[in-house]
Amino acid sequence: MSAAPLHPLAQAANEALAKDCPVLLDLLSERGKRFFFPAKGILAQGAEAKQKAKTANATVGIATENGAPMHLACVHKYYQGLTPAEIYDYAPSYGKPDIRTAWAKKQREETPSLGDQLTSNPVVTNALTHGLGLVGDLFIDPGTDVLSSDLMWENYNLNWETRLEARYHYYPFFDEKLTGFNLAGFTQALSKFRGKKLVVSLNFPNNPSGYTPTKAEAEGIARALGAEAEAGTRMVVCVDDAYYGMFFDESCEKESLFGRLARASQNLLAVKIDGATKEEFVWGLRVGFITFGVKNGTAAAYKALEDKTAGLIRAYVSNISNPGQSIVLKAMQDPDFRRQQAEKVATLRSRAAVVAQECRKPEYADCWDVYPFNSGYFMCLRLKGAEADPVRLALLDDSGIGTIALGKRDLRVAFSCLTEAQIPAVFAGAAQAVRKVRGK
Ligand SMILES: Cc1ncc(COP(=O)(O)O)c(C=O)c1O
Known about the structure:
- The protein is of the alpha/beta class and 440 residues long.
- It has 2 domains: 8-37 and 93-333, 3-Layer(aba) Sandwich (Aspartate Aminotransferase, domain 2), CATH 3.40.640.10; 338-438, Aspartate Aminotransferase, domain 1.
- It has helices spanning 8-20, 22-27, 30-34, 42-52, 73-76, 84-87, 97-110, 127-139, 155-162, 183-191, 215-230, 258-261, 276-279, 299-316, 322-333, 337-359, 388-399, 423-438; strands at residues 64-65, 68-69, 123-125, 145-149, 167-171, 197-203, 234-240, 268-275, 288-293, 368-370, 378-383, 404-406, 410-414.
- α1 packs antiparallel against α14, α10 packs parallel to α11 (215-230) and α17 crosses α18.
- It binds pyridoxal-5'-phosphate.
- Pyridoxal-5'-phosphate binds at residues 127-129, 153, 203, 207, 240, 242, 275, 277, 283, 288.
């Protein structure tokens, strides 16, 4: 237990959770329980002044001139089409209201299975990494059990394991024959935590494999989680939708699992981590979102979670890039937004099709198995008879081709960064590297 006294606003948020969704209070980490949004301090006085200070407003920690944020011409020349207020002013810790509303609308449109299920408003994060960090801060204490697939983005370990001391458990992502998602292994792994608290991380399209479950598999995942929650496991299920929309095969489930999970059980808090980074091709703008959903969730319970989240944002970084949010919002409002985005996805789809042909050429059958892929930015090879890192190095040194070695035997290829013309040489070079390392 913490020695720090519980702030009355944290107490109030915890009471709201205890009253409406008691499992959520139980799921919070000690830090999560302590957090609140400091709505009554400088921010509240500033907000009050914004409404009423008609003569002069001496509350805000920015500098103004001619009724707008002060700024330098040598900075401003790099921006077109944004007002100084859309660039230089601080954004609220929760994110700019308009982009929160626009993103919530987008989520609803793309997730029909949410139906009329109430969810929180998305809170803006410094892209998805920060969203994942917030999930950790809110729900992970040292020793909290986390269940993940073995194929995963390695930064989760840095974020939740190294930083927050979560205890990681893994299940094999694919079935043994590499035909699809390992539902049996996932279900069995889940059952080991019956009656406990568990954080489950899901990421589809998956980094590094580029796999999205089929509709039947997605249904199976949602059922397994719902059944386990109903059997008494208290769960936070983090749905990382970083690569949402990059679907290249009709068999993919094109809806986020958040939709089904948000209404699955009162013992299951679904947290959607998504954002513009990969979906809208704006990696460096750093605009993401965290959204909560739970069966029978109430406005008061969601408000408590949003306040705790915004409080953490206020504490660490105060608020998220205003120009990033302004640009993403304007793009979403642009009549050409959907068409332009679809064009880029089509480019990736064509590359994925070339990769699918090249990597499975019969002459490479002795060099690797191909993990199933149907979406996202990546695909992965499971190498035969050669370790991944020496193969990566040989491929780099002999052919000048960069890939990522993961663990002992997996090689990740980001086809999102390859032209179609470059793809054949990547796999030819990889086969040459495998044979060199293997000695035959
Ligand atoms: C699965 C997954 N989640 C989250 C992220 C982080 O994305 P962002 O750049 O928005 O922080 C990545 C980035 O590679 C990723 O692959």
